[in-house]
């Protein structure tokens, strides 16, 4: 467990969306379900979220787990078509 799946082809992309599976951590009675998404372009992520095509898999006893979602986007858009940054600000927020 602990991965997210993207479709391999355009045909699958129309049907599938993004599937996110957690990394399950437990120490004593503390339980953490950690979900991670990275390296997905902003336009693609926006489309998948707006289309309600992001599937989050949960453990069977989901009420006993604390859930956290980690999104890693380590880039600043180079074109204003993708991201509009107000004048005077940087992409390091």
Protein model, in words:
This protein is an alpha/beta fold. It has one domain (4-72). 16% of the residues lie in helices and 31% in strands. It contains two helices and six strands. The protein has helices spanning 10-15, 42-50, and strands spanning 4-5, 18-20, 23-27, 30-38, 54-56, 66-72. The strands form two sheets. It has a three-stranded mixed sheet, with no helix packed on it. A hairpin with a 2-residue loop joins strand 3 and strand 4. The chain is globular.
**Count of discrete alpha- or pi-helical segments spanning 4 or more residues:** 2
- Return the string of H and E elements: EHEEEHEE
- Overall mean pLDDT stands at 77
Low-confidence stretches: none
Rg from alpha-carbon coordinates: 16 Å
Number of domains: 1
Proportion of residues in helical segments: 10-25%
- How many individual β-strands? 6
Biggest sheet layout: 3 strands, mixed
- Strand content is 25-35%
What is the terminal-to-terminal distance?
31 Å
Strand order of the largest sheet: 1-2-5
- Secondary structure category: alpha/beta
Estimate the global geometry from the Cα principal axes.
globular
């Amino acid at each position: 467990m602990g991965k997210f799946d993207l479709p391999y082809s355009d045909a699958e992309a129309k049907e599938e969306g993004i599937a996110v599976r957690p990394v399950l951590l437990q120490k004593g009675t503390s339980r953490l379900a950690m979900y991670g998404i990275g390296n997905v372009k902003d336009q693609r992520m926006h489309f998948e979220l707006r289309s309600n095509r992001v599937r989050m898999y949960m453990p069977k006893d989901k009420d006993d787990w604390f859930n956290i979602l980690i999104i890693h986007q380590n880039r600043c858009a180079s074109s204003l078509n993708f991201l509009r940054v107000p004048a005077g600000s940087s992409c390091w927020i």
